[in-house]
Specification:
The chain is α/β, with parallel strands linked by helices. The protein has helices at residues 13-23, 42-55, 80-86, 108-119, 132-140, 170-174, 176-183, 194-197, 204-211, 216-235, 245-254, 300-316, and strands spanning 3-9, 28-35, 63-64, 123-127, 150-154, 189-192, 201-202, 242-243, 259-263, 266-268, 278-280, 292-298.
């Protein structure tokens, strides 16, 4: 039986690449997408998820709207830097047709809980935005922490600096309280943070491969990702490409051997000047049961090969 996967996305550019990676991976079945806020408003992210799953030939994937703002806030506004990196529409300002489908009527939180109850150990949940939806699911049904197969998140930074400020990574910064609740919950969590995602880079050479396919999906992927690479030339000029943040989390969910991990119980600072920092939890440092692990090394050539092979094959079809 193939693993079942839920992607929890604020569907911007690297989230879209994560969807493509999941759909191009025969080891997993993408059973649903839950929307969140971050790169875009939740409504725009849900629209993008419906549109890109159609474009990639998978209209069977249901999309649920999740919570629209952080757990301790009343509203959310997209930051100017997010619009600069992902475009006003979240997908590099590339125009693709709206889906004729609508989001599912049920709540994302209930869908997550129901999926854990249905698939148990066979379910892998991959949040690549703020952790608001999964924290709400754990608050509503705490027992799912012992029932879910695994959670592989994109977020945080342990051995490197953050990308919002020296200690905060963007996804965690959106809702540090929710991330802390997840980290301390005892659920089986793998953190795929900037420690490894900034080592996996895409360049114009790879996007040209997609453009040369001549398919609508190939052109879309190339145009969208070129926008992302161009933004990185301003925000991280020394990097030499764009980071494959969200696709690497999906890659690790499919094949955990892509990364080397440190087993360590983690927390998120929620008070004081370092709010949003992901760090080892001193209170549980000596607990023999480590429920979390943090990716600290990555097999870059193997991941990039898997990434290009899977997504190019999807875009070809």
């Amino acid at each position: 039986m193939s693993k079942k996967m839920i992607l929890d996305l604020d569907t911007g550019i690297d989230d879209t690449l994560a969807i493509a990676y999941a759909l191009g991976s025969p080891e997993v079945e993408l059973i649903g997408i839950t929307g969140t806020y971050g790169n875009v408003l939740v409504e725009q992210g849900v629209r993008n998820a419906l549109a890109v799953t159609d474009l990639f030939g998978h209209p069977e994937v249901p999309v649920y709207a999740g919570l629209s703002h952080a757990s301790r806030k009343d509203s959310f506004e997209v930051l100017p830097v997010s619009a600069f990196i992902h475009g006003q529409n979240g997908i590099g300002d590339v125009d693709i047709p709206d889906s004729d489908r609508s989001p599912e009527s049920g709540s994302a939180v209930d869908f997550i809980i129901d999926a854990v109850k249905t698939y148990g150990e066979d379910l892998v949940y991959v949040p690549t935005g703020p952790m608001t939806n999964i924290a709400a699911a754990l608050a509503k049904a705490p027992e799912i922490k012992d029932e879910i197969g695994k959670i592989v998140l994109m977020g945080g930074a342990l051995t490197v600096c953050g990308n919002v400020d020296p200690w905060q990574e963007a996804n965690i910064s959106q809702d540090p309280d929710a991330a802390d609740e997840l980290f301390r919950s005892g659920a089986p969590v793998t953190m795929v943070g900037l420690d490894v995602t900034l080592q996996t880079l895409l360049t114009y050479k790879e996007t040209a491969t997609w453009r040369e396919l001549g398919t609508p999906a190939g052109r879309f992927l190339a145009d969208m990702t070129d926008f992302y690479i161009k933004a990185y030339e301003t925000t991280a000029p020394k990097l030499g490409g764009c980071g494959l943040h969200d696709p690497l989390a999906v890659g690790v969910a499919v094949d955990p051997t892509l990364v080397d991990t440190l087993k360590i119980n983690m927390k998120v600072d929620v008070d004081g000047p370092t709010r949003g920092r992901t760090i080892g939890d001193n209170d549980r440092l000596n607990d023999p049961v480590k429920t979390m692990q943090v990716a600290v090394g990555v097999d870059v050539p193997r991941f990039l090969n898997e990434f290009m092979t899977r997504i190019t094959n999807l875009a070809k079809a």
